[in-house]
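re: that chain from earlier
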Amino acid sequence: MTIENIFSLRKSKESLTYLGKLLVDGKYQSLWDYDTKLLPRAVRKWRKKARKFSQSYLRPLAKRVDLAPDSFNPSPLLSEATRQGFQTIILPFPLGTAAPFSYLRSTTLQVAVIAEEFATECGGLALLLLAHHLGVAPLLLSGHIRTWIKFLLPMYIKGARFGKPTTMAFAITEPEAGSDVEDSIGAKDAHIHVTATPVRGGFILNGTKVFISDGGIADQVTVFARLKGEGIESWTCFLVKKGMKGFSVGRHEKKMGQRASDASELIFDNVFVPKRYVVGKLRGGWALNQNVLNYSRPVVAAMALGHARGAFERSLQFCNEHSFHGKKLIDYKEIQHELADMLIKLMSMRMTIWRSCAHFRAVQSLSSIAKVYASDMAVEVCKQAMTIMGDAGVIHDFGVEKALRDARLTQIYEGTNQINRFAIVEHQYATDIVLR
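^ sequence. v structure.
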């Protein structure tokens, strides 16, 4: 579409009657602005605030920390995100910073819109900030008011009031128990080695967790372990704090994507955990874990959307700034078709995610549908962006190959997309819909 066509399109409203003009859009805002207006007022504010934060704080760091993650000190970024309320957005006042009325409509929407904005600039920095909520989720879903007051309230007071972050991590994955522990079908055969031995006053934890996001920098970790001599049916969640005797960080993984986020091995060598640090019910870890994943999958979907949107925006800018045979890339119909196809995918991803966040409680099939669809589409969009840009698409400075590497990871964690497909069908059996 040429620039002349655009101008004539904008002028076409002038020939309409007064009433006709009222029914025709003449603002021609960005689709980001149109979508933002669909959100509740408080969620709109968080989306705008997250975009401003990500452009101001994540964009300047993104390329540098992707190349040299080991030299990156995340403390200043975590402190600023905490001070602005992003690290306590999983709960409303008095335990967090989420807008209460919007929270009562959806527990996940506010986190999801923030996740998209963060991931648009950098997947690794987005995960660095968002993995904290995954660690907090078991404390929230335990439903124990005493747990909320003891652990969540101090986190909010120290964080939102004083800008001192308490970083959490979520530890379920083990060297021989990855996808199994995220799948109802495979769980019974999971080789879980992290055990909790009951002793006087508490439990002794032994074993190793791997690929734990923020594991190396976390102040506290929600850890899932089976009781000694029992299977996964005894899985229980424990809160382990940095500095507990026997708790240490092992290997730091070198990842293909989302490199700015730490992924570490956690070692438990006779770690004593008091009874009061049991999260939820004893032997209630399996249900707690499954429900945590139901809440976190729409957020992972939103991250995937952010990776794809970032790739699209960078490729669009590239097409506006570069020419081929004396003609701007944006003026080639083939390029316009590709960009339109990418935009269609972005819009459908966002609507799927927001639809999954339309309920107060997370819905298993909707959460998994959003995660699978958004992460698969994100990889496709990033590949299209690289194709449009040609040789420039594989150059780190343009940021599109990084977006593809970041997006690929969203197909794997929070249950692989194959496992999530099982979760989608499992929910249909659970609701007996197949019998109707």
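The mean pLDDT is 90.
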